[in-house]
Write a structure and sequence with these properties.
This protein is an alpha/beta fold and 387 residues long. It has two domains: 133 residues, Aspartate Aminotransferase, domain 1 (Alpha-Beta Complex), CATH 3.90.1150.10; 215 residues, Aspartate Aminotransferase, domain 2. The protein is built from 15 helices and 15 strands. The two termini are 29 Å apart.
């Protein structure tokens, strides 16, 4: 590819950004770490934000109800066939805030929390800071994809007295989109042990051909009654800086405790964040589909190129723009991400920060243009060849 087009960003332009992905690396390092994309803003979102600015409309918002509740319900029904009550939707600034709130409301220090491993590093850090005991269900290679042992999870939950289960689906970092039977197995465990389930579904709209995203709370009445679903336009439209997300709080115990919190403890939605999210959900689907097609092509290209790298393995992700590289057979000196940072001048996310199962791995973000992705892989290839 020539490096031009809607999803072929200029490296020079990217290095002018203040966002953390490009800002926190030296000029000679190509970043492929934090989970944000490199693409220009969806035009519908840019127009919506410009309209607010043109009106000078950044005063206190006149929201008499949750402004994203009904749009969120409409989107879930349209895209996933999940009919939900907008009255159960609550505002939150972002995923990690919501996870911490739910953890605080339904567990105590010393309580056990179940989750897959490897897992999203801020979740692991929050559990450590909050004094909760993580109970891990390993994600393990199953043929050309990833899976987990539901019976092992069952035994772990029973033995540890788990109260909360954190579900990341699509899974970060492996990119696995869990199937209905897998989700039903988790739902059965949650029902039998009366678990609250917090379902992180931020990557749901970046699921590739042949795979479907199934909201956990859509599995049935029992799942809906015990699940807190968190989502936003953050990953699908790259709006992390807008600090705007929604929580569908299906569990009445959590909802009652949530509603007893002081009204501003959870902060307020960002005025521009609400307008951006509304524009994304109402007018951004064409752009989203073009981006998804580009990311799928990027994934396929990356899988083909990694197949030629000695000692590096990659199971093709079902969703997300994240690739979980298994570098254990490459016999690198030390941590894989540190090796590629020093030898290839490429910044990846270190596997160990994702918890058990992370050693010898690194996460690569392919949410960029083909020209930049090829530079990243070329540098990695050169670093392996020069040993």
């Amino acid at each position: 590819m020539s490096g031009t087009g809607e999803f072929e960003p200029s490296e020079a332009r990217l290095r002018q950004k203040h966002a953390t992905k490009w800002r926190h690396v030296p000029d000679d390092v190509l970043p492929a770490w934090v989970a944000e994309t490199d693409f220009d803003l969806c035009p519908a979102i840019a127009e919506a934000i410009a309209s607010v600015i043109d009106r000078g409309d950044l005063g206190y918002p006149d929201w008499t109800h949750e402004p994203l509740a009904v749009p969120f319900a409409e989107r879930m029904a349209e895209r996933h066939g999940w009919d939900l009550d907008p009255g159960l939707v609550r505002r939150t600034c972002d995923l990690v805030q919501a996870m911490q709130v739910v953890t605080e409301l339904c567990t105590h220090r010393g309580d056990a929390v179940a989750l897959h491993a490897p897992n999203y590093p801020p979740f692991l850090h929050a559990l450590e800071t909050m004094g909760r005991r993580p109970v891990f269900s390993p994600m393990e290679p199953v043929g050309e994809t990833w899976g987990f042992d539901a019976e092992r999870l069952d035994r772990a939950v029973a033995g540890a007295g788990v109260k909360l289960l954190l579900l990341v689906n699509p899974h970060n970092p492996t990119g696995r989109a869990l199937t209905r039977p897998e989700l039903e197995a988790i739902a059965d465990i949650a029902s039998r042990y009366d678990l609250v389930v917090l379902s992180d579904e931020l990557h749901a709209e970046l699921t590739f051909d042949g795979h479907d995203h199934i909201p956990f709370a859509s599995l049935g009445d029992d799942a809906a009654r015990r699940t807190v679903t968190i989502t936003s336009a953050t990953k699908s439209f790259n709006l992390g800086g807008m600090r705007t997300a929604v929580a569908h709080v299906g569990d009445e115990r959590v909802r009652a405790a949530w509603d007893r919190l002081p009204s501003e403890m959870l902060g307020s939605h960002h005025v521009l964040g609400v307008e951006a999210t509304l524009a994304a959900w109402r007018h951004g689907d064409g752009w989203l589909e073009r981006q998804r097609a580009h990311l799928q092509a990027q994934r396929d290209h990356l899988v083909a190129r990694v197949a030629d790298l000695p000692g590096i393995e990659l199971r093709s992700p079902d969703a997300t723009y994240l690739a979980w590289l298994d570098c254990r057979r490459a016999a690198l000196d030390g941590d894989a991400a540190e090796y590629f940072r020093s030898r290839a001048r490429v910044e990846l996310s270190p596997g160990p920060i994702f918890g058990p199962g992370g050693d010898g791995h690194a996460r690569l973000n392919f949410g960029t243009g083909r020209a930049i992705l090829d530079q990243i892989v070329d540098r990695i290839t050169g670093s392996l060849a020069s040993r």
